[in-house]
Design brief:
Strand order of the largest sheet of chain B: 6-7-8-3-9-10
Bound molecules: adenosine-5'-triphosphate, magnesium ion
CATH topology of the largest domain in chain B: Rossmann fold
Structural class of chain B: alpha+beta
Number of domains of chain B: 2
CATH class of the largest domain in chain B: Alpha Beta
CATH topology of the largest domain in chain A: MetI-like fold
Shape of chain B: elongated
Distance between the termini of chain A: 32 Å
Structural class of chain A: mainly alpha
CATH architecture of the largest domain in chain B: 3-Layer(aba) Sandwich
Oligomer: heterodimer
Number of helices of chain B: 10
Helix content of chain A: over 70%
Number of domains of chain A: 2
Order of helices and strands of chain A: HHHHHHHHHHHH
Number of helices of chain A: 12
Number of strands of chain A: 0
Strand content of chain A: under 5%
Largest interface: A-B, 20 and 25 residues
């Protein structure tokens, strides 16, 4: 909407119907955006709100009264703390391993032409394209057939596997716009290949690596389907919540959910600020 | 004044036996021997041999795609030659990586590190060498930024400076390492005309001040002429002539060089007599002209060349002074260009010759020559040159 159009609209009021039309014409995008945000945020607002509830029975579905009880004793329900710790551990380890491997694969695939490159490209993409349920089931078959006991290790292997795909895709997007002449300039100025990587390449693709790591972390902490197939007796947070719905979800689940949400928003805000500072100062 | 000692990079190469010769003063900064670079079947550089002298401003001039950048990248170490030898101050560096050559590059788009401040960009090379105290490093960077006239820019990021300033930073970043040779790949290509002219003088001044050998790539003949001590005029993978700007302009040796630097009139002819100091050549319209024997260089068929501004016009009834080469023709076109007037003259056999006449001449003649008028063209035999066909192929000429 140009200012000229706005001015002309103000200067020629016309009939009320025309005016409403015009108002809609100017504000439709705003209204639409607002509605979309409400739609997206409503479940989260409900989750946060109900973390302050004191429910009557076991299920936290109806608002009764305000309470800080769940926030003061977040790990009161049996098994919840173990599940959270297991999930965090799996998420951290799989994120670190997948980010390192995925970054190296991304660098290799964008920079070098080698035999099997096309095949590698395809294989890397497969876990993203395959339905999770199929992936989980086939992993289970694999682990059973090679006689591997299902525990946290099998979950880790599964999570690293699908996380690598997402990391590679993210890193490659970042590398696509990378000016190789910067690396040549570094070597021209006396930096060896290794120094060039750490002083020039790495700092420049770091935002991409960070984004990839954040994506991997959230995919891992949130995964239910594949985890369920490969978990054995290990219980992760999503599995705990799924199990709890049958007997009534404790308020503490909302508390943990709110904390995870808050952390995610914090991380996004932080990385945006960092990038902005990078660009400006 | 920034003093840059010669040969500050001893002993990278194990075969370097120069350490016992007291002050190292090599005459030749860079030597290319039979250098070939092929990309697939295409030879981007096709057997180049050249020697760049220590301390000179040397330019590679040529049209797009003739192999200038590839040549420069091989000297810098970013590209390995398919065959041939590259020597730097007498040392064979053909297979050394860029970080082990005492050469620095100013890239066409500057390639400043976007994540580092101007200070850190300039200090990058010194930090890699190490062994400098913080205070010393700081003073060297400050001094360098003063040399390129950017004092006080230390804290800015490359996104916060203009194109001309980025160009200076790139220069400072390269020169601070006191390289034996500085390579510049069309460093002014991204600047507007005015800034370009200003930076040309600036580059010349800096080169004079630091005394470093510059190898400068450009496709702008005017730029190359005004800045260079010597120019290699390149055409499809090799150079056609290597000389100082004046020689290139006054005595081009090939059709390509004559056409690439300025405007030339070329008239085919047959050598009648190879005398000294002048050979006589019969042109297609039967006129016989005299050409310096050195320019004919023993050939039997030549194209006789003369620059448009060297030709004087005489009315049909006037007698050109004896001793000049004379042709007769008819004015076909006269364009007034302010400083000069450009005439197109058609000779008897239909070739067209262009003539630039300074407009001061008009007041002497009293009037312009008009289209249709018969005239004589006269020029000194000393202003005449002769070219053979291009070394590359016939189609490479204008
Ligand atoms: N990496 C490459 N792969 C294949 N061909 C290349 C490569 N680099 C250059 N060439 C080819 O080699 C030839 C010379 O290229 P070069 O970049 O040296 O030209 P140039 O003289 O610098 O031209 P310009 O003035 O346009 O920069 C061109 O025909 C180009 O297409
Ligand atoms: Mg080039």
């Amino acid at each position: 909407m140009t200012t000229a159009a706005l001015e002309s609209a103000v200067r020629s009021p016309g009939t009320p119907v025309q005016r409403i039309r015009r108002w809609l014409g100017h504000n439709a995008l705003f209204v639409y955006t607002f509605a979309a945000i409400v739609y997206l945020m409503l479940p989260i607002v409900v989750m946060i709100l109900f973390s302050f509830n004191r429910p009557a029975g076991k299920s936290n579905f109806a608002w009764r009264e305000f309470s800080l009880n769940a926030w003061l004793n977040p790990f009161a329900p049996l098994g919840l703390s173990d599940a959270v710790i297991a999930s965090l551990r799996i998420a951290f380890v799989s994120t670190i391993v997948a980010t390192i491997l995925g970054t190296l694969i991304g660098l290799g695939l964008t920079r070098y032409v080698f035999r099997g490159r096309a095949a590698t490209n395809l294989i890397i993409f497969l876990p993203m394209a395959t339905p999770e349920i199929v992936l989980g089931a086939s992993l289970l078959t694999l682990f059973v057939s090679i006689g591997m006991a299902r525990n946290e290790l099998t979950i880790l292997i599964a999570h690293i596997m699908f996380n690598i795909s997402y990391v590679v895709v993210t890193i490659r997007a970042r590398l696509a716009g990378f000016d190789r002449r910067l690396e040549e300039a570094a070597m021209d100025l006396g930096a060896t290949e290794m120094v060039t990587f750490w002083k020039v390449t790495f700092p420049l693709i770091f935002p991409g690596i960070l984004a990839a790591a954040m994506l991997a972390f959230s995919l891992s902490i949130d995964d239910f389907v594949i985890t369920n197939f490969t978990a054995g007796s290990t219980v992760t947070l999503p599995m705990y919540i799924y199990g709890a719905t049958r007997i009534g979800v404790p308020v503490q689940v909302n508390v943990i959910g709110t904390i995870i949400f808050g952390t995610a928003v914090g991380a996004v805000v932080l990385s945006t600020l960092l990038q902005r500072r990078d660009r400006a100062a | 004044m920034v003093a840059i000692p010669g040969a500050p990079d001893p002993g990278h190469c194990p075969s370097g036996t120069r350490s016992d010769e007291s002050p190292v003063t090599t005459e030749v900064a860079v030597r290319l021997v039979d250098v070939v670079k092929k990309f697939g079947d295409v030879a981007a550089v096709d057997r180049i041999n050249l020697e760049v002298r220590d301390g000179e401003f040397f330019s590679l001039l040529g049209p797009s795609g003739c192999g200038k950048t590839t040549t420069l990248r091989m000297i810098g170490g970013f590209e390995e030659p398919t065959s041939g030898l590259i020597e730097l101050q007498g040392k064979d560096v053909t297979w050394l990586p860029p970080y082990r050559r005492n050469v620095n590059t100013v890239f066409q788009n500057y390639a400043l590190f976007p994540h580092l401040t101007i200070f850190e960009n300039v200090a990058f090379g010194l930090r890699r060498k190490g062994g400098l105290k913080d205070a010393e490093l700081r003073s060297r960077v400050t001094e360098m930024l003063r040399l390129v006239e950017l004092p006080g820019f230390e804290k800015r990021k490359p996104t916060q400076i203009s194109g001309g300033q980025a160009q200076r930073v790139a220069l400072a970043r390269a020169l601070i390492n006191r390289p034996a040779v500085l390579l510049l790949d069309e460093p002014l290509g991204a600047l507007d005309l005015k800034l370009r002219k200003q930076m040309q003088l600036e580059l010349k001044r800096i080169q004079h001040e630091v005394g470093v050998t510059f190898i400068y790539v450009t496709h702008d003949q005017e730029e190359a002429m005004m800045m260079s001590d010597r120019i290699a005029v390149m055409n499809s993978g090799h150079y056609e002539q290597l000389a100082d700007p004046e020689t290139l302009y006054e005595r081009p040796q090939t059709r390509f060089v004559a056409g690439f630097l300025g405007v030339s009139n070329l008239l085919a002819g047959i050598v009648l007599e190879k005398g000294t100091p002048y050979a006589s050549v019969r042109l297609a319209d039967e006129a016989v002209v005299r050409v310096p024997a050195a320019a004919v260089n023993g050939r039997a068929d030549v194209e006789v060349g003369v620059r448009p501004e060297k030709i004087r016009l005489f009315g049909a009834d006037a007698e050109p002074p004896s001793g000049l080469n004379v042709l007769s023709g008819t004015v076909r076109d006269a364009s007034y260009l302010g400083v000069s007037t450009q005439y197109i003259i058609e000779t008897k056999n239909g070739s067209r010759v262009s003539v630039y006449e300074q407009n001061v001449e008009r007041t002497i003649h009293g009037s312009l020559h008009r289209p249709g008028e018969a005239v004589h063209l006269g020029w000194s035999p000393d202003h005449t040159f002769a070219v053979g066909p291009s070394v590359a192929d016939a189609s490479a000429g204008e």
